[in-house]
Amino acid sequence: MTLRQDLPSCRLQIDSNELKVSPRIPPLGSAVQSFRPGKSGLIGRTRSEMSACATVLLIRNSVFATSRLVLQSATSLLLDLRNGSSSRKRRRRGSLPIAAVSAIRGNILGAGKTLCGLNAAFGIEGAARATFLTGNPTLVHVLREALAQDAWKHGAELRAARQKMEGVIQALPRFRDHYVGKPDEVPAENIVVVDEAQRCWSAAHAISKTRDRTPRLSMSEPAHLLAIMSRHDGFAAMICLVGGGQEIHDGEGGLAEWGDALRACGGWRVLAAPDIFAQADPRQRLGALPDVRILPELHLAMSVRQVRFTDASAWVNHVLAGDDVTALGIAEAAGDALPYLLTRSLPAMRAWLRAASRGHRRAGLLASSGGKRLRAEGLGVELPHMDAKAVAHWFLDRFPADVRASNSLEVVATEFSCQGLELDYCGLCWDGDLVRDAGRTAWRVRNFRGKDWTRVSGAEAIANQINTYRVLLTRARYETVIFVPQGDVADRTRDPAVYDGIADFLMACGARALVPIPVQAPERAELMLL
To answer: Rounded CA gap, 240 and 231, in Å?
Structure first.
């Protein structure tokens, strides 16, 4: 496969609180050549009366310039497959069906997959139509409103812009239910971008969740999506963005569900990165598939979210694995560049974040949805992630002009509100739902029920809660300030010894003590969706 370096570039950029779509968007004649560096991949399929086969392309995480060539190469492959399909259609009745699927290795967060998917969705012109699907309601709200406002600032009518965004950026559950309920209807879109595809529901969860409502699901979400896109009688594609370490809900089937769906469909050709079938987590293994072609150039391996420290994700992974020795080694090598600060004072954290986020930079408070005892610290008000207006105000507006903005540092966003998005600076409020026990390597997960904490024992539930903190620890482009409460000896749910254990371990991992000195921030900075 030839790397094509002459492809036009398309960039979706957020300057401060604005998203701007570059006017240099290539037509469909260039296929989806506007991919930016990041986690991404392609699923495409054409189908005919005579044959039904496909190709799966699995792309891994990216590294700056190298990833650009890899993404262009993958895009070129999709274009070649599509063109080959058209040629065959001219030579014989029916066309050669085309398909491609993507995945990403390990727990690398912030590699630009959302930006990549948006470029694909907005960078397609001509006869084809594309839509961006996500099961994350917060991402839907923020993207729609930010892009609509940007279009309005460039002369579009705001109402019309919002209506257009509703068609391009859609909630995956609504798209799925609409076409499952109408089995004879062909999707209007030839190309579908599936955000966080590894978080799609397993078959068991899908059937259980829809048992008492209409329409009922009879298969996993990947199987339904593949079946829906198979209704096209010509070229169609699914661009799957697949990450790792972000499963925070029960019933998220991982890449294994896509493997099951592909095996059930049959007739798919597979192009994959070398290690896509050998992940440690069985949920993230695609499994054996026939007709597999391994392509080393599809292996991408670096997060690009952190501006100053590219090993931030590695540090977080070792911290959450309980490996303080390796985490400390990373921290010592980084020195003052380690972007994780620790404080036991909430006022000190707020003061530091306000000083750092002056000008165009944005800060906000984050906390686990399981951190129920943060209420005692005055942190009981959570951002309602299903409220479109509240979410848009929090991520897009500015303080002090609007107290609903994240910079006011009053309302806390949970993992459900911030996954898929990012801020310049984050204040992570750590509670007793993830604690340390003396002499143990692993973290202990707890739920607060009724009047006390209870221990969690299920493997999936434990993994999901650890992933919650993985998501929260990787939302910042610059520094993350971690606040661990002091606790209260008079409150058994806020035992000071428990909080001391958390803080001591983070310090042992190399987290830097917060120095409560105002930080002078540059006047301008970019905020990008990764």
So the answer is: 18
